Amino acid sequence: MNTTISTAIAEVLTEVLERPVTDLRPEMRFDRDFDLDSYMFVQFLLGLEDKLPGLRFDPETIGQAGFNTMENLVQHVEASLARAEQAHA
């Protein structure tokens, strides 16, 4: 897993959940393992946007079901950041 993205995810989860989050694994689920409801998940994604320059989630396609595992979210973020980088190249 991408260390920069994983670290950002842990930091934002810590802020949203108001408790330390460590030892993230690819199979972890945001709803089950962190008990994020839809409101908290949106807060989490907005926090990630603030933490990772160039990252933007499309409000039309944003949804917890689409990338509810750590692995799916990291893959989505990597692809989004790569597209943003290409657009600015």
TrEMBL record:
Keywords: Plasmid. Pfam families: PP-binding. The keyword Flavoprotein does not apply. It comes from the Bacteria. Residues 1-81 form the Carrier domain. InterPro entries: ACP-like_sf, PP-bd_ACP. Signal peptide: none annotated. This is Carrier domain-containing protein. It comes from Tritonibacter mobilis F1926.
